Description:
It is a single chain. The chain has an eight-stranded mixed β-sheet with strand order 3-2-1-4-7-6-8-5. It has a seven-stranded mixed β-sheet with strand order 11-10-9-12-14-13-15, sandwiched between helices. The chain has helices at residues 16-24, 44-49, 64-74, 93-102, 120-136, 149-155, 165-176, 191-196, 198-213, 218-225, 251-257, 262-276, 294-301, 315-328, 346-358, 396-406, 423-431, 437-445, 447-454, and strands at 4-12, 32-38, 55-59, 77-82, 87-88, 106-115, 146-148, 178-188, 235-242, 283-289, 306-309, 333-337, 362-367, 373-378, 410-413. By secondary structure, it is an alpha/beta fold. The chain has 19 helices and 15 strands. The protein has two domains: 4-193, Spore Coat Polysaccharide Biosynthesis Protein SpsA, Chain A, CATH 3.90.550.10; 235-454, Alpha-Beta Complex (Spore Coat Polysaccharide Biosynthesis Protein SpsA, Chain A).
Amino acid sequence: MASHEVSIVIPVLNDTEPLRRLLATLPADPRVDIVVVNGGAADDRLTAICRRPDVKLRTSAAGRGRQMNAGASAAAGRWIVFVHADTHLPPKWLDEIRLASADPDAVGGSFRFRLDSGAWQARLIERAVEWRVRWLDLAYGDQALFVRRDVFDAMGGYREWLLMEDVDFVRRLRQAGKLYHSAQPVLTSARRWERGGWWRTSASNVMLQALFFAGVAPERLAGWYAHPSRRSTPEALVVLARVPSGGRGKSRLTRALGGDHLELRRALLLDTLDAARSVADADLFVACEPADSIGDMRALVGDGARLFPQQGDTLGDRMRNAFAHLFAAGYATVVMIGSDLPSLPSSHLAEAFRFLRERPDALVIGPASDGGYYLIGLRRVCPALFTSIPWSTPDVLTTTTSIAETCGLIVSLVSPWHDVDTVDDLRRVLRDAHGAARTRAWVTAHGDVTQLVSDC
């Protein structure tokens, strides 16, 4: 006997950060239970994210069909909604399920498709999906498919194919009864199209669907789809950070403000991590200093990032070793930023990853106003970039770009930004239109500092 009105099943595979954002949009509701099915390795962060009374965490072998069947077996709702981790339901999604439920002929349905991109190509793709649903009655898995539980059981659930399991499911679901297609939009990540190219990705999807409809086995399609030349490469974003502690860090700023201001340094770091979490495609890391401070850093930042210690005597050594650590872990693209960028726009980070995807020989740098850089990104280790650099001088950027040319790297500059080393830098942060919530709150709470940074 179903004990809930609706169950949400979310299959995940290395989707910890998108899942965190998705669950934040789904407040606890006594009518709804949520089942997360992990198809990857055990992950402490995933366990922490799912530590809610209304969320069940299950594991299964990888594969969306297999994972969604495993989630359905643990679901307690009369209706089941299957939601990808990078898709967000509309605010009134439950009302739409109830409208479908009120129609005795409706056995399932979908939501309208919308991409989280302002690109004009996204609007064309959305329109094409709308036409497909209207004329072919064919919705796909990124539209948050939903189904009556008894109908799902009678159908035998999803076929546990490597590809096209959603297309097959909807085709069989249509045979069971009427589909209700909601006008309310789900918001789906555009990262596949942005990474693979709008037209290339769309053409590939259409070709796969056409081959499937022509009778090509899903196993053959999956083998082509997963060919190394098409496989997504893992990306990492690492924040180089010292654990805020008494007397160390941000000496120029704290001397000017007077006092140690430990909480300000914590606010700068946490605001920077908030900015970094806006990058949906990349795994987030914090490289900690001192090396034995991982426990303190974990207590400060929580489970939203993976931690590893910095290694090396100089700043250049620590940066080079952090890149080497992540490349050795299997990441193909690594972007590094500092821990004092509380108002950094997410578009700057997205720009850096986009440049790196386009050129395997790229060095991406974000110029800072003091002659250094706030961001650096690579697809391979180049030790010379971190050797004999005049750190903390106005010559850091020019020296680094000159060395890059000798290494055969193509330098791409992303939009400039400012880190926080001085009172003037702090003033700039307060003038920025976004981010830095904790930093702003700290300044507001300290009247003497407010007066200082307000002085021109």
